[in-house]
Structures are given as C-alpha cells and as structure tokens.
Design goal:
With about 80 residues, this protein is mostly helical. The chain has a domain of about 50 residues. InterPro entries: Uncharacterised_YqzF.
Length: about 80
Amino acid sequence: MGRLIALLILLIPGLIATLGIKLMRDTLFGILHPMYVHLVIQFLAGLLFFIAGLAFVGGFILHRDRKRNLTKGRFKKKA
C-alpha cells in the first residue's frame, strides 16, 4: 500500500514536469497554445513547471534516502 501511495505522490509532479518540457518544446517549434499570450510567457511557464516538478521529485527522493540513512556526508541532515 505504501508503494502505491508513493507512486501516486510522484506521478503528479512527474506529469507537471512533462507538461513543462512539452511547453518548452512547442515554443521552440513556434506552436502557441491559446492559454498563453506570447511565446516567451509560454516558455517561462514551461520552465517553471519543469523545475517545480523536478525539484519535488528530487526532494522526495532525498527525503526518502535521508530517512533510510543512505546519503553521504554532504546531504546528511544537520542536528
């Protein structure tokens, strides 16, 4: 059950990061989605989505590894 919950927690930010990559790719090919006014705004929104999704997944993995004591000295939690 715990693994299923972890998968669902990681699925949503993963999809957000994927949407960010798609928006940035569409900007490079000149495809403007109706939700955005300008290509630059679309690219920045895609970059923000990608960074937010990647940061969440990375933070989740770091938190899990700290909990299991798998991190090296640099990433150890300070007391």
